[in-house]
Amino acid sequence: MNSNAEKYSQLIKSKAKRFGFQSYGISKADFLEEDARNLENWLKNNFHGEMKYMENYFDKRLDPRLLVEGSKSVISLSYNYFPKEKISTLENYKISKYAYAEDYHEVVKEILREMVDELREEIGDFDCRVFVDSAPVLERSWARKSGIGWVGKNANLITKQNGSFYFLAEIICDLELIPDHETTDHCGTCRKCIDACPTDAIVSEKLIDGNKCISYATIELKNEIPDSFKDKMEDWMFGCDICQDVCPWNRFSAPNLQTRFAPNEALRNFKKVEWKELTQELFSEIFRKSPVKRTKFAGLKRNIEFLEKTSDKK
Fold this sequence. Notes:
Strand order of the largest sheet: 1-2-7-4
Largest sheet: 4 strands, antiparallel
Shape: globular
Number of helices: 13
Order of helices and strands: HEHHHEEHEHEEEHEEHEHHHHH
Radius of gyration: 20 Å
Helix content: 25-40%
Number of strands: 10
């Protein structure tokens, strides 16, 4: 082991804390053997639905050394997005908390790049790539291996201190660092997430059938929403937080301190009647910097119309 490994590992963690990351840990860049079987079975069962990109780069998803040549370590980090205030759902459609504000891909990636720049000033140049929910990286697997948390029954990464309302990010680099140890699973016999899911998308512990998931239906699905979702959407127009909201560990979620994650003013003020009148122009204005732009105007309009049609038949 490199004599600087301990020093660099501590420096990276102290820097991560200073840059506002909630948790951080290190894994050795290696082949994810256990995850290879799980991913293969998930794809074979077609639980990824229309997310055909999940079939691509199978080997790279499982071995970061194929993604970043010469990589030796994976630094996993989490960034809190739990809001200071929840958007009212009174006469309003629901939106996942992560999409309340600016697009996390941009915000967290900017922070990561600044952090890497500072590290290079102190360590010297090293080769790395930063990732925030992008590229073929199995984020939860690396975060689990680095000891940040455990994968809950709802397939989200959970920590005892902070629950699960956070983004995951990675720095895959050629620095030799001290790996951390995995933590233990603390879900126990709790089934709240499984029992609360209105579409039964959690088909078994830690296994999600994307075809049944409200988040998938409102974001990833490009075709019409299937009739099987009727009367089960619970007014979610973008994403879904049900399995996280009921998780007992999320009672420890504390509001984030990132000003760029303050809820979008339009989302705070809109009601169902305004959403029904949404235009392309207004969509572009409201969601210009938002993760909601991923579903595009046509997708969000489809979701709203599906919810409207469903509620009319109640």
